[in-house]
Amino acid sequence: MRKDAVQNRERLLRAARQLFADQGLDVPLEEIARTAGVSIGTLYNRFPTRDSLVAEVFADRVATVAALAEQALAMADPWDGFAGFLTGVCELQAGDLGYNDFAVRGAALEGDRGYGLMRQILERAQGSGDVRGDVTLTDMAFVVWGVAATVRATYKVAPGAWRRHLALALDGLRAGAARTLPGPPMSVAQTRAAMREC
Description:
The chain contains 11 helices and no strands. It is mostly helical and 198 residues long. The two termini are 37 Å apart. The relative contact order is 0.11.
């Protein structure tokens, strides 16, 4: 790319990162272009769809989550790895409303690397007897979704409230707290459909 094209792309990414962090993923693309000091046509030339812009903006966060998952799997204690991973993901969500939205919309997407790593973290903690055996990855998607809703509702008035919500959820996931759950878990397809509605 020409130097000016590279600069425009970087300005767009900077503007999108900031606006997404402050307002969430539904920021109008026109506002991103205006903040970057370029035309909407320039934005669409660099990023043909909102999804392509979002993917580029959060590529570093996706890599960070993968690194958190690798760290969790390397920890000696499976529960510490499990709880530490969820806490790390929620910390990323709490610091950036855009990533918070991204985490909800991307939760439980079967087939990506993060899904596979989360499966390993969960199965390892279940295998050690720390996490109740009837928890599924779709259940975990709703834990992330629940914390995301807490982040969005409280980020101005009580920014750390999500930590209490997560602690309550983690206690409910412990094997020692297990009681029979009502009904079966949702399927991946049902979970995806529900996530599209948010």
